[in-house]
Design brief:
The protein is an alpha/beta fold. It has eleven helices and ten strands. The chain binds adenosine-5'-triphosphate and magnesium ion. Magnesium ion binds next to α3.
Length: 267
């Protein structure tokens, strides 16, 4: 990374949000969150707390409810009941404040493929009300070590480049919480390593709390500070990665622990 936090944040449209500590040490708190799709209960009274400054990994089988959770926390989907508070803002009573406080990288990030990277980011920066988009975009791309592609059309980007463009877009307005849905999917090993480096620097250098859905268990040990496991819509486990590895001394890896916990749930 080429520049540090103070310079990066100098162009932030929300300097107060970054310089004043959050009113709460809990970045994300969900209370009895339920989501039904017709008869199907995709989320079952989810009670989850993620302290500020964590890199939290939400694990779970296909269909466990991970994307549903992130969609609710990013205000894209309404819960059937229950609520959540992100950075001190309630998703039901103040969704606009939640949207200003968060960044979101969906699994399949959408861009205008016939526009360049700079044009796409300028469009999104204007939507967020950023005062000096050009300077801000330069700062973000420099921080992400992703300069030199500004004039290239998005339609010609590789999957890895698209992901980095997606992260640039997600952090343009200097959010305090960043949500990532399966960010490593489709990336090659170098892309995964680069993404890991980016996530860790967003967390350590800019103080962003990160919430990521993932299938890659090996990645969780390298990137995340805490994990939760969803199984058929129910949170069956939550702890720090360190405590998890210590609590299951007989299991050789986080993958074994995950399978052990999942198996205990099923049997
Ligand atoms: N719009 C929808 N309408 C009906 N059912 C849905 C809808 N979206 C999700 N579901 C169902 O809700 C459950 C949870 O889906 P969700 O996409 O949240 O899982 P996931 O953990 O993200 O899975 P994956 O690992 O495959 O991405 C699944 O059973 C899914 O079929
Ligand atoms: Mg999903």
């Amino acid at each position: 990374m080429t520049i540090g936090a103070p310079e990066f944040l100098s162009g932030s449209p929300y300097p107060a949000r970054r310089s004043v500590p959050a009113m709460t040490d809990i970045a994300i708190k969900t209370t009895a969150l339920i989501k039904r799709y017709g008869e199907h209960r995709a989320l079952n009274e989810l009670n989850l707390q993620v302290p500020s400054g964590e890199i939290f990994g939400l694990l779970g089988h296909n269909g466990a409810g991970k994307t549903t959770t992130v969609s609710i926390l990013t205000t894209l989907l309404e819960p059937s009941s229950g609520t959540a508070v992100i950075g001190g803002h309630d998703i039901r009573s103040d969704p606009d404040a939640v949207r200003r406080a968060i960044g979101y990288l969906p699994e399949n990030v959408q861009f205008y493929d016939n526009l360049t990277l700079a044009e796409n980011l300028t469009f999104f920066a204007r939507l967020s009300g950023i005062r000096n988009p050009r300077a801000r975009i330069r700062e973000v791309l420099t921080f992400l070590d992703f300069t030199g592609r500004e004039a290239q059309r998005l339609g010609t980007f590789s999957k890895g480049m698209r992901q980095r463009a997606g992260i640039a877009q997600a952090i343009l307005h200097a959010p305090s919480v960043l949500f990532l849905d399966e960010p490593t999917s489709g990336l090659d090993p170098q892309g995964v390593a680069k993404l890991r480096e980016t996530i860790i620097s967003l967390n350590t250098e800019l103080g962003m709390t990160v919430f990521m859905n993932t299938h890659l268990l090996a990645e969780v040990t390298k990137t995340c500070s805490s994990i939760g496991i969803l199984s058929s819509g129910t949170l069956i486990y939550q702890d720090s990665v360190q405590a998890t590895l210590q609590s299951f001394p007989d299991q050789e890896s986080l993958e074994d622990i995950y399978l052990h916990i999942e198996a205990g749930r099923i049997s």
